[in-house]
Design a protein that fits this description.
Layout lengths: L9 H12 L4 H8 L3 H14 L15 H13 L4 H7 L5 H12 L21 H13 L4 H8 L3 H14 L20 H42 L10
Helix pairs in contact: 1-3, 2-3, 3-5, 4-6, 5-6, 7-9, 7-10
GO molecular function: sequence-specific DNA binding; transposase activity
Family: Belongs to the IS150/IS1296 orfA family.
Protein name: Helix-turn-helix domain-containing protein
């Protein structure tokens, strides 16, 4: 069984990094030397990001501010990147740390503590109808999670979790069953569903109307700019034979 990653010297880490750079796979290194592949991958990430100094043993755990963690989490949730890429970009030694931040954030827990069930600072209590309305608003507005946080005064983590549940199970998936009897199925009435559908359509209409207005304005600018472009074209004199 291999040692823990922090018990390897810098020289040893460089040796295994060199093996991978030379074409040997992390799994092959485990079979021959007993070093866990995840350690080797982390060493390579650190080395590529910060050179030899990044491989030195860290005597004390790095502390990150809540603002910094939130910035990294939202960068991941926006899409188009991976945990290792973000670890290199923000100089975070272990990409699994980002995974834990994202997991805590999307489950509505605080980023600054690992205590179970701690609510986020900017979260608030909501009803099932509110959660459905917010989820529908996000979908109607092209998955605008950030816009929903300011529009409805809720946290990003709450919005993300509600949309995910709503897409998987509809309005019934957003029932808060804590402290409720089993016979309470959380079914919305016909009137409530009708009101929610009207709000969804209004949200979608507002979003589309904004897009149309922007498009019209852009077309107006293009029309205004067209005569100026024509006037700047070089004058070509026709030569008679």
């Amino acid at each position: 069984m291999g040692r823990k990653g922090s018990r390897y010297s810098v020289e040893e880490k460089l040796y295994y990094i060199g093996l991978v750079k030379g074409g040997m796979s992390p799994n092959a290194i485990r079979e021959e030397y007993g070093v866990h592949p995840s350690h080797v991958v982390q060493w390579i990430e650190r080395y590529d990001a910060g050179g030899v100094d990044a491989l030195a043993k860290r005597r004390e755990q790095r502390r990150y501010s809540e603002e910094f963690m939130l910035k990294v989490v939202q960068a991941y949730l926006t899409g188009g990147t991976s945990y290792p890429q973000l670890a290199r970009q923000y100089d975070i030694p272990n990409s699994s740390v980002i995974y834990q931040w994202v997991k805590r954030y999307t489950s509505g827990k605080s980023l600054t503590t690992t205590r179970r069930g701690t609510p986020m600072k900017d979260g608030r209590k909501t009803t099932q109808i509110e959660r459905v309305e917010i989820a529908q608003w996000v979908i109607a507005n092209e998955m605008n999670y950030t816009g929903a946080t300011t529009h409805f005064n809720v946290s990003y983590g709450q919005v993300y979790a509600w949309v995910k549940k709503f897409k998987q199970g509809g309005p019934d998936a957003l029932v808060d069953r804590r402290g409720k009897a089993k016979e309470d199925n959380g079914k919305l009435t016909e009137s409530e569903l009708k009101d929610l559908e009207i709000k969804r359509l209004k949200a979608r209409l507002a979003h589309v109307s904004t897009e149309v207005a922007v498009l019209k304005k852009l077309q107006e600018f293009e029309r205004m700019d067209a005569p100026q472009k024509k006037s700047t074209l070089p004058f070509k004199r026709s030569h008679k034979k």
